[in-house]
Amino acid sequence: MAAETNGAATPGPAAQETAKPTGPTANPNPATAMGSAQTPASSEKLTPAQLKAKAKAEKAARRAQVKESRVSAPPPAQDKGATADGKGGKGKGKQDGQQAQTKGGQPQAHRPSVSGRRPEVPAPPSVVEKDVRSGIPACFSHVPMAKRIPMSQAHKDVHPVVLSVGQQMATFALNDSISRLKATFLAFRKVIESYETPKGNSLSRHFVPHVLNPQIEYLTECRPMCFAMGNAIRLLKGKVNKFDIDTAEDEAKEGLLEWIDLLITERITWSEYAIAKNAAQSMKDGDTILTYGRHRLVEETLLQANRNGKSFDVTIIDDPFTGGGKELAQTLRQVGIPVRYSPNLGGLRPKVAAVSNVFLGGEAIFANGSLHAPSGTADVAMAAMNAGVKVIVLCETINFDRDRVSVDSLTYNEIDPERNTADCFRLLYDNTHEKYITGVVTEFESGGGNSPAQAILALLRKQEDPLID
To answer: Pfam families this protein is in (predicted)?
Structure first.
């Protein structure tokens, strides 16, 4: 007896294997199809393999039925702009992907198009990181620029204190060369204290390539190394290499820590005091001193001269981009020193012609006597020499470069990352030729004298570096 489904007779197994459902009225119900397959007309028992093949054929037939029903669906009605919806009703004509609206104006849920495909949604535009150097011309592509290096990208051996110093350098919280030098070697002191020589190695062979160099590379990536840092690191490596391979670790570490303390005391603290004392002795009562921006050696010199009881006044021409001269003016006025302040280089000639001496601070002095200093320093020095005014540079010998020379402002410089746009950019330093410098005051001078800029090599040879021994 044949099984019944919805009142219709179900064909036998043989007919089900050959016949395929056609048209939208075919029954897609899997349960019904399986029920009919399980009611054979003959008494022959099917094997499991035959049952599996039959079920597979029925599944393929159902898929073909659904596909055929989509292809044979009636086209959209064109009567008065009405289109057939998915239920045979009529709605207002809308493009695929748009919401249809009812008579009440309420939006209906989105329905797929007649083809059954979802409308393509454009992908959101990808975020492209802007290259900060994209606006720099090719002729300036060699000039480096400070940048913040994510701590996650730093070498695994970089000490946490060095990571902090690098971030401060990249953001110019540590700006001038001596501040960067001092912070760097205080961080190196922490590195040495936490260092342990691996088994089978010696400090003199392992420390520099495997511990010290990763710290230096990270700091250099954050901001190009200043000349004082380069000189001091060269001395530190020389000190490490002089240790005997059999030197005990505790003894070597103690020697390095004492050496760093001596470097900071002699080449930074004592040098600043000696330079300020020597430069203050060269000043006379009634002098008018002109300076550019704010440099710590010039500031300490003026304060020392005031403590010595000398009467003088100061003219400050400020760097319009940094504004450090304003802070210097406030400091000098608090101790009673008369100050005239100019916010920029405008009207430079008459201001320079009215002073007695020009005191300038520098970041470095090259072997040919040229001065590496903040941008604008060269303008002040040239105007002063043209007016017949002495230009005195204050600089520590740790900032002297005995190996390199410089004749322009492009060979050794940096691009200001805060003032770098697609239209223009600014260089942090300029180069002042030695002919515009009257003399240089260092920590090795005495009696208020100073050496000409060209005599830097002779001065360094005469005063051998005690830290190398």
So the answer is: IF-2B (PF01008)
